[in-house]
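[READ THE FOLD]
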Amino acid sequence: MNEPWLPTRYTPPLSDDFVTDGDDLIRFANMAWTTPEVDRADFKLYRWQEWLLRHVLEKYPEDYHDPKLAGELRYTQVCISVSRQNGKSLLGSLLAVYLLLWKGGQVLSVANSIEQAGIIYRRVMVAINENPALRDMFRTSETRGISSKDFRRSYSVKPNKEAALQGLAASTVYDEQWLIKPENYAAVVLGTSAIKGVVYGISTSGNENSTLLAQLYQTGQDAIDGKPGLERFGFFIWQADENASVTDDKAILQANPTVAEGHMDLEQVKRDLLVLPEREAKQYRLNLMVAGVDDIWMPQNLFNQCLVDDDIPEGRVVFGIDRDHSWNYATVTAAIKREDSIHTQVVGTFVNPTKDQLLEICLNLAAMNPIGFFMEGYMLKDLAQDLQKHGLRAFSLSAAEVCTASSTMYALCAQERTRIRRDPVLLFQAGRGKQKYKGDHWRVVKQNQSDEIDALMSTIFAVYGASKEIEVGPQIFS
């Protein structure tokens, strides 16, 4: 078989006509599966997904020379690595149902966060609730897990903490192993071995901090090479060639089997890649390990292509506000959305401001009847609260929202959908920002301790605010 959607590397089966539980799971899925996006009548696994399930669920034949292994699943650990948006959550949920129905006992979903692990869990819950036969077998709950009515089978979500995972005897489905700590994974594997269970992991590639995933990649390659003792470790990876361009057709097809099989448009994927930082494009779409945690926040040419000399259009604006840590400087930026573009302009930069002075500045700007004021909660939470007391719409952004604001600014600049009025302070600071990653999210921070980026951040917050569809109620000014 030489299909374009095959993995770049994978552990070969014991024989060409290997025994597998994958066929039964595939028949079950194509007959009875429901997802939040697709009704049962319209659901159909892709060929690459069927291929993978057959190989992952390979079994030792009944006449195997070692009677202790005859009829058992070949793999006790499996590492699957594929780019984002290729259906990892679907595969994870199907493997969780396999463990629940075929193997029984306790089954866990684990990810870097409860919310991430809950994605697979909710897919399983929907499939059970929408199937009358499964609904008669199981009790489901949003928060208390899924259990069979005879209490012999259960499925739940656990946090990615060693203490929570220690001593649990359960088969496990991992999501995004590149974010998992080795000691947490080891605790799960140890518990699984006590019941002859299985650990399935599905992940995109990682970075230099992804110690566990790097270890699994090396173990997987050793298993492919036939290293003794690794026959029961399964490894399946879709990955572009090292140093491939993020817009190279071959590289995209290598790492994205859904595209290679023709179910996603290659040209659309290439267009989407243009709005991602190169580091994210390589990791999430080419499925390559990326080095370095901090990168320049945006190539200078992307920012420069958005610069204009015109004032922003008239109308109701959003204001973004930021200050430096020492209260040496603060900047206010206005932004307004016009058709498919967002126009920004620095309103003013202030030296040695106090919170009361910033409040007075914002109250004066309130005469323009703005849509709202956006600022980082960590830096200016008190200011936001004071503005709210005056009846103004003030948004105190969380750490996660600052990350979203940063990536929103990048995407809009890459799409040439921002019109940034030239300002000397902003132009200087634009080259002083870098990306700071935490997990799979990033935000703009200053490159050096002595740098200031208040004008840059206020512009990012203003663009983020203007990009949101805000329901505007009555405005009260005092």
Notes: Residues 88-103 form the longest helix (16 residues).
